Amino acid sequence: MRIEKRLLRFITLTNWIIFCIVTTSGFILVPGPFAWGILAGGLIVTINFQLMYRSLKSALTPPHVANIRVVLGKYYLRFLASALIIYVLIADHYVNPLGLIIGLSVVVTSIFIATVNEIRRIIFKEAA
């Protein structure tokens, strides 16, 4: 399997696992707006990640290579929609901002874990 597909599969799976663990822990340990913030942030970032993957896959797969302006336009629309949702969630006090930040870091955490895993794989492959 190519490294890109393996990494993408690992990151996607890890996103959902971390999202479920953190959200469940949030509702068990600190129910209320904090836990709802974790849930909302995790959903926002995970869905955005999936939409960006689909957008880039369709834009970069021949023979229908899309214009860069279309790809960037979709990216900025997603960004503005996410910013508006986050603004409403915080401004109307639906969620705790710290819980939202924890939820929004799900994808970053998954990418970090994937990077450490790849470095470990490379180091042990060279050692063998």
Please describe the topology of this protein.
Elements: H1 3-29, H2 33-60, H3 68-91, H4 97-104, H5 106-127
Helix pairs in contact: 1-2, 1-5, 2-3, 2-4
Polypeptide structure, described:
The chain is mostly helical and 128 residues long. It has one domain. It is built from 5 helices and no strands. Helix 1 packs antiparallel against helix 2, helix 1 packs across helix 5 and helix 2 packs parallel to helix 4. It is flat. The two termini are 20 Å apart.
Brief rundown of the structure:
The chain has one domain (3-127). 85% of the residues lie in helices and 0% in strands. The protein is built from five helices and no strands.
Question: Which terms would index this structure?
Answer:
85% helix, 128 residues, flat, 0% strand, mainly alpha
| Total number of beta strands | 0
* Structural class based on helices, strands and sheet pairing: mainly alpha
Rg, nearest Å? 17 Å
Low-confidence stretches: none
Q: How many H/I helical runs?
A: 5
Largest sheet: none
Instruction: Please give the share of residues in helix.
Output: over 70%
Order of helices and strands: HHHHH
Q: Report the mean per-residue pLDDT as an integer.
A: 92
Number of domain units = 1
Distance between the termini: 20 Å
Q: Strand fraction band?
A: under 5%
Shape call = flat
